[in-house]
Design brief:
Layout lengths: L8 H12 L1 H17 L4 E6 L5 E6 L9 H13 L2 H15 L7 H16 L5 H4 L6 H18 L4
Antiparallel strand pairs: 1-2
Helix pairs in contact: 1-7, 2-3, 2-4, 4-7
């Protein structure tokens, strides 16, 4: 990332909305995994996307018996893990893990990560309210921008 590359506002707001939906996305993912693993009727079908790529779709209510339940569940989990929602979930998690990677103190790094998460999810948490000793305002917002940029680039939003 160089200084001449600025995120367009629509991309920035899209990323912020995706971060705000992270909790819901994680709950849905865990529920879907649980449904697949605890059901007997998980089934996957292969289909073509608009771009022509091959993809798997998870169909929880289908009771096809052409493959074993274990194979069917494995395919359903694979399809779930390849879905766009899960890609967004993992991309955001991985991006947050990289925040403050240059900070030796795990405690300060965790506070910075949590502070940026709070700042992204609510306007009630500007830098001044977060109490981040050792992190300047400029460093905080630079780390936040790098996070947004990394997520946007990984999700190919610009």
């Amino acid at each position: 990332m160089n200084n001449s590359q600025k995120l367009p506002n629509d991309v920035k707001f899209t990323i912020l909305a995706l971060i705000r939906g992270q909790k819901r996305r994680r709950i849905k993912y865990l529920q879907d995994c649980d449904n697949i693993l605890n059901s007997g009727g998980a089934h996957c079908v292969t289909y073509k996307t608009q771009s022509g790529a091959s993809a798997l779709a998870y169909l929880p209510s289908s009771m096809s018996k052409s493959i074993s339940d274990t194979e069917r569940k494995a395919l359903a989990l694979k399809a779930l893990n390849e879905s766009m929602d899960v890609k967004v979930l993992k991309t955001i998690d991985e991006a947050f893990e990289t925040i403050g990677s240059d900070i030796p103190s795990k405690e300060v790094r965790n506070k910075l990560q949590n502070g940026i998460y709070l700042n992204c999810t609510s306007r009630e948490y500007p830098y001044e309210k977060l109490e981040l000793p050792g992190i300047s305002r400029k460093s905080f917002y630079k780390a936040k921008y790098k996070l947004l940029y990394k997520i946007a680039k990984e999700l190919e939003l610009f």
